[in-house]
Amino acid sequence: MSPSLNSARIEALASERLPQRWNGAIDRALLARATAQVLLSIDRNLQYFGERFPAPSTSGQVYPAIGNVEWTNGFWSGMLWLAYELSGADHYRAAAERQVRSFHARQANRQETNHHDLGFLYSLSCVAAHRLTGDPLAAEAAMGAARLLLERYLPKAGIIQAWGELSDPAQQGRMIIDCNLNLPLLYWASEHSGDPSFRAAAERHIEAAARHIVRPDGSTFHTFFFDPASGRPLQGKTHQGFADDSCWARGQAWGIAGFPLAYRYNSDSRLLDLAQVLANYYLNRLPQDGICYWDLMFTSGSEERDSSAAAIAACGLLELAPRLAPGNPLRDSYQAAAVGIVQELAQHYLNQAAAPGSGLLQHAVYHKPHGVGVDECCIWGDYFFLEALVRLQRDWQPYW
Ligand code: GLY
Hints:
By secondary structure, the chain is mostly helical. The chain contains 13 helices and nine strands. It has helices at 7-14, 28-49, 73-87, 90-108, 118-133, 136-150, 183-193, 197-213, 249-266, 269-283, 307-320, 331-348, 379-393; strands at residues 53-54, 65-66, 153-154, 159-160, 174-176, 223-226, 233-237, 364-367, 372-376. Helix 3 (73-87) runs parallel beside helix 13 and helix 11 (307-320) runs antiparallel to helix 12.
């Protein structure tokens, strides 16, 4: 952990008081209606996209169709697997299995694989397929992707480099908080193959994230640079947030979700403490309806919300809460916050439009500084909203 984030400080931050905004009551009828709406939208979009995929974010609330080339394609596959689990309907499985073949070719041909988002891509498409159906081709594709991800490991720094060529001076030695969600692929690969090197890299990376990405006040840097030759930590920098020293809301949400997912594999309880620290920082900076602004430096006013960060954080809280000891005073608060956030999204953030290709969860932000996908739907927001609905309605084994 960061030297100034010692155990006394972690304990203090982890037990911060939270807003008493949510009572935790689950409105089952609301969740069922939202789930039915999501399935209807998936059916409509499956017809519309065919063998293609939704783009990362909508334009005018409608996703352009793209090939299997983006870091986000797995979210659509993940939605199909969730829809299959919810309904048992074979057409979702058949479509997701066609996508597994596309993902197999993508890693074999190294098409747009030169980044760390292989975990997002392959956990939700191929690990999901293997977990649900035992498909050996899916496992082979996921193992291939894990090997590509491991190529990005910088041993001196103990991190997976996020973006670009390893030799690119602009990207060299950069880790980003989002990578927490790419690590489950590495843990899975070690479990699947018996080769411990994937897990070892994931362990070093999560340790570096805990030490350097998490700041002493419980907020997070979006990205952090190391000198790849010596491994020396350099400085934090934002990419999608408001400023280097602000806290990008989705980054914080990736942390809230990612640390408990790593705990699933390594049982290191420090990761749960850290997730609590991040969750408390996040929950104490929400506006009245509980849906964050795109950067947590904003707590009121007319800046855009990021509903996708809210959906990710809700899934993280639902992963975290049951892992805390029953006597933990905040366990029920996290569960209640997750329920409240998901129900707010279901009531006030769902797109009612029926146009083919329509997004689901409105009022998300992809990249505000670049003006991309601002106040639009983002495909990961749609995915995590559905994951949250599933988590709240059944006993679910994550694809992560
Ligand atoms: N992982 C990229 C993003 O959250 O926009």
